[in-house]
Amino acid sequence: MTERPMFDDEDLPSWLVEAGITFAGRRARVGASADAPPWELPQRSLPDLPPPLPAPEEAPPPWATADSLPAAAAVDVPLEEAPPGFQTEQPDWLLPAIEGAETPLAALELPDAPMPWDADAPAESGAPPDDPFSDLDWMTQSPPAADQPASPTFKTSWLGDAMLPDAMREAAESAAAANLEAVPDDWLSAAETPSQQPATPTFKTSWLSEASPTEAVPEADSSAWDVDLFADSAPAEMPAAPLGSTTTDDWMRDFSVEDALESDPDPTAENSPTLPTAPDLSWLGDAAMPQAAEPLSATQSADWMRDFSVEGDLESAAPTDADWLSKIDLPTGEDALTEVAAEPASDLPDWLSSGKVPDALDDLPAAEPADAMPDWMSADSAPDLSAELADLAAELPNASEVPDWLQTGYLEPRTESAPPPTPAPDLSADAEIPAWMRDLAPAPPTPSALTGSSDIATSGMDWLDQYDFEASTAPELADIPKPSRAAPRSANLEAGLEDELDIDALLAGTDVPIASDPDLLPVAPINLDEEFDFDTLPDLPPPSDLTAHDIFVDDVLPADVLADLPPPAPATPPVKPSPPSAPSAPVKATTEAAAVSELPEWVAEMRPDSSPTLMIGDQQVTLEERPLSALPEAILALRERLKQLPSAPPPAESKDSQLSNIPEALQPPSLPITPAPLAPSGALATAAQLAGVQTLRKIAAAQESILKRRMETEASAPPSLKLRARFKLDRLLLTLLLVAAVVLPFFTDLDALVPPPRHANLDAAGQARFAAVSRAVSSVLDGSPVLVAFEYTPTAAGELDDLARALLRDLLQRGARPVILSTNPSGALHAYHVLHQLSLDPAEMQLLGRSSPLVPRRDYVVLGYLPGGVSGVRALANALYDDSFQQQVIFESDLEGLPSGISAQTMPILRANPVFVLAQSQDDVQTWAEQFHAPASAPSDAPLRMVIAAASAATTTLQTYATADPQRILGTLIGLRDALIYRDLRDQYADAESQRTAERRWQSVGFTALSAALAILLGAAFGMIRILAQRRRAQ
Amino acid sequence: MTPQTLEQIGTLAGAVLTLCIFSYLLGDNFLYRIAIHIFIGAAAGFVLLATLESVLIPWLRVTVLSTPLELPRLGIGLLPFFFGLLLVYKSTPRLSRLGDFGLVIVLGVGTALALLGAINGTLIPLVGAAAREFRPENAINGLIGLIGTISVLIYFTYVGLRRPSGEVTQFLPVRFVGLIGQGFIALTLGATYGLLILSALTVLSSVVADRLFILIGR
Amino acid sequence: MTTSRTPRRRLRLGAALLAALTIGIALITLLGLEPAAPLPAALNANLSTLSQLLIQLVAVIGAIALLLGVLNLTRVHAAQLRKFPHGIYSLILLITLFGVVLLRALERGGVLRVGTGDAPSVSLTVLDAAQVAVESALAGLLFFALVYSAFRLMRNRVTIWNALFIAALVIVLLGFSPLGGATFLPSVREWLLNVPVNAGTRGLLIGIAIGVVVVGVRVLIGRDRTFRE
């Protein structure tokens, strides 16, 4: 039989590959002897294990062929529950062998060295247990070195990968096809998980590494087997190993020997067991004898069960030839199957020879309670396996029965559903596929036990049901029960194990427990011919009471053997061996799974949530965790320290990540995303800026404190103080000073100090300004309307009324008819009032040379105010040129809504005469300067002109526009001074008293301005002195 | 009541209100507030009257109430009221967006007017004046004026260079000229402030002379 | 060089419509006031008429807005009537407002007439007494505040710019009137106002005009934020 890779090498860690778990690794390691079956290769010496416990005699191992085992009950292989991935057609070598043909399993040779789980297994005098994993070369790794931890931990990550149905599917689609040789009916490679199975199985088989034979076997459920270890393995590539080969046990031994594996860090990838595909079970198919194949003997069947710490019942019931698996020649294709089927039936367990899987391990005889019963082999209720195991062999119908652990359900995601009915194996329909192989597909969870009381096919993986492989996190390794050693072992096997099994690595660092643990119930030999109820396996004691030797050791090895064991070599610290409990029913492993977070995903999936149960044929063994005491002190100390640390919250698993839905996956570290501090792009504060910022902060804080103190003071101060606080002395003094300065000129004569303004005292520019205004006023025709824009509110009336009166007087003296307008309603009203007051003053009327007061809408017109500000001025400018209804709107009615008397014929006159604008602010000046333009259609030689009289505040803007556009702005008058000058120039004083009054006002303004300037200078001086003093004090 | 009596009453009332306003120098008090509220009420009333009498009623008379009734005039006459109604919705949170349509025409026309006025009324004349400032007969003043105008414009330049440290600094020549412009701006603002003080002072003196002295018979 | 990516705003139909209307009206007004030579004369004439109409409409809308402001003032103070003591002041305000309107109505109706003139003397007297006097007084109060502020200018910080500010201020005030007949200060004041201040004012006005042009162009190209918020 040609080699075929059991696992994809790239999926396995290098150390496993180097350990030779894969064919490539094996080839690399073995070299010329790569073609030899793995179990024939020189195996590493494992620590010496005590002789296995005697295998139960009543329960033959499931693999016991029909010839070797007493007539066992036919194992009902629920073929209907085979995963859909499993082809209904079986490779030939998996088909029930031709009657009389030698089963392939017979060619399997189990390693002679005792397996670790054989330590406590009852010695089987029969054939060595069949080693279904004999082709796994990694099992033959050298024993751990002396410096390795005493309690080696076996890491079965390869199993986890191998048990991924997704991986299986992927492998089936990709790598598996490449790795596998052409297998016509590679039903294993095309194995698929059943539809009810979850997509991401979480079967965790690290229990395989740390299973303690003393713990009860968890209830196994065939359907709970996540992934078929060998689903993708090309049967043809698996070399047939002769039964009873000493190498058969090695692989099982290596299950629990991490250091053994680690010591050989070069397992070839080809043989890496971490294939995400089911391992190649072709060799098992070879061993899956046709129905005519005789079941293995009890001793033979017990061997492989013993390898899984099956109690002696199994061993007694089945051939104890542990090398039976190694003797199995795994052919490829139908020939392989036939060849396997042609193996001597006596060499194969029934389930292997008949191609059927026993109905359930429940059918197997219950193993006798043995103190070396592995946990994983025992059910929660510590079933009595001895009787069941003894009946197993008898119950096994033929060699085609495959133990549940080899069924697909072993490695496939388990479901929480109720155990489906156990369908009867349809050998006729699936003639090419042994029933046990068919049942390798996950079967519905059924309560099963190594005692075989349940249907093997359905309960073979039952123990996996207790674990929720869909949980986000894997169950604690500690929760994974140690496999119980319910498999009976044959004496030969024991001898073989003693001779060849290197359990040094296994026992490295372990403390030899007292085998006489009352909890360690003796396990009856498993009768593989009958249903083996692994649930009846005894419960194993909690791992706290166990030591590192628990795995496959405590329950198996008798005390004297254990005492002879060398101190275990230091090995890498195992996972926390918290006591798993043998579940009696599928236990939801969600909570338990959450505890396991350190393991790789594929390992985590292999772990059962509590005591993992390994289905070996129809036997169910429970693995248990390694105890803490097995850890080296340094690791223990570290563990204690870690306990004290606050546990970080589990990282939120992203649903979109590739590792989603995979529990116990190593979540990517949640990198704290600290947003970068916002900073202006490229702008970095310098030291000076930072100092400035600090200063500002201090200032703000100081201001706040001052305000707070003030508020508190004012709140607590008596009312008198509050009133006093309102008065500021400097402000009061200044006010008084200014008031005095304003009032004093009215009571004194300050002509000498502040002489009145005279036109003669003006400079040329000033005089030019007045001349221009005079010219503009003089240009107004007698009797013609002239626009006068009162663009100031009563706020500036005190300053501009004088200018307004001066201009109006002048215009009225010229006979002009002022047309008052304003963009402000208050300005228009005030203009109305000014003219009204002017008309009521007889002196003014006399000055104007009028005998009658001015009559509105006759002597003057106050138009309605121009709303819109800028748009109003623009509308006025347009209305002067455009004969549209805009003229009608603006000029038709006055401020009272009465007809103004202005018609369209007046427009040219209005355009010709300059507009006298009385502006209060710079905005008004700017508005008129910008907007009072003739439209583009107007002739350019007749621009709209204006004379702007503005308040002092608009001086700068007015002068700027006036100097910029002297053709449009004919002249400017500014403030009270110009008004007085203009009045003086125009001789508009009615009498001396009015002039005197005007001059007093000028003196008041002048003197007050002087006072204000001095006060401002004084304040500036005081401020500078104060600051200088502060700086001097600061220095 | 004669006009003189009315005038006297008015003058007296004005004086009293003026004093009430001046009482603010002593602090906020009820007299001041009364005077202020009287002023606001009167101002609002007069604005209302002026708007109604001088703008809206004539507008309606010209457009909506014109005879014969013309639909274009009618539509034009109602348009301002329509937009005005939209403006009312600006005060409501839900329908403030509707009020934006009332501002559309105001914003559009105002933009056009501002644009034209800035170009035709300010930019072109003032730039020309700045160019004409420098005359041989007025070289120094012209130069000062030219420098002042340019430096003030450069002071408001917001173009800088980003240093490697991230700090944005102006170019050295720009900074130097900007300092000069800052000086001109300080002078301009100081002079404007002084002129504002003069305006306020002029008003104060007028108020004192025209309103308060009446109370003392002057 | 850092690139800042401005988040793209979702184009809203309402904002787009508003912007389109604004741009259209602005363009019509512009072309009506400043006709473009390439356009035909008839179109320019129509645009001119349309622009004038738009300007007049805006003017009337301004008046309506003022009216709405007064109505709102009335509503607010009417709502405060129930509060004390603010209610008293609001009552005074409303009484004054409606009193002015009533007076005007009576005057228009010929019921309340003083004198023989056609001018509404009562209304104008009330205007003078209530509005002009108060506004003038308020403006007069401004003088004290301005001077006091200038008095305290140098109290907190002394800089060259503050010094220039104070210097120009003092020169303007001192040179307002020739003290004692001295014309030195008035001359300096005149030179200050005509030369450096004029230059500075010119620069400021040009800068303001440039800013107005920029804003106007932004409105015309639809980049204004008025209708985006």
Summarize the structure.
The complex is a heterotrimer of chains A (1035), B (218) and C (229). Helix content of chain A is 35%, strand content 4%. With 1035 residues, chain A is mostly helical.
Explain this structure to me?
- The complex is a heterotrimer of chains A (1035), B (218) and C (229).
- In chain A, helix 26 (729-747) packs antiparallel against helix 37 (992-1034).
- In chain A, the strands form two sheets. Chain A has a six-stranded parallel sheet with strand order 7-6-5-8-9-10, sandwiched between helices. A two-stranded antiparallel ribbon of chain A has the order 3-4.
- Chain A is mainly alpha-helical.
- Helix content of chain A is 35%, strand content 4%.
- About 36% of the residues of chain A have low confidence.
- Chain B is mainly α and 218 residues long.
- Chain B has a domain at 139-218.
- Chain B is 77% helix and 2% strand.
- Chain B has helices spanning 3-22, 30-62, 71-88, 96-133, 139-155, 172-212; strands at 161-162, 168-169.
- Chain B starts with a helix and ends in a 6-residue tail after the last helix.
- The model of chain B has no long low-confidence stretch (mean pLDDT 88).
- Chain C folds into three domains: 12-79; 83-151, no CATH class; 157-221, no CATH class.
- Chain C is built from eight helices and no strands.
- Chain C is extended, with a radius of gyration of 27 Å.
- The interface between B and C is large, with 117 and 119 residues.
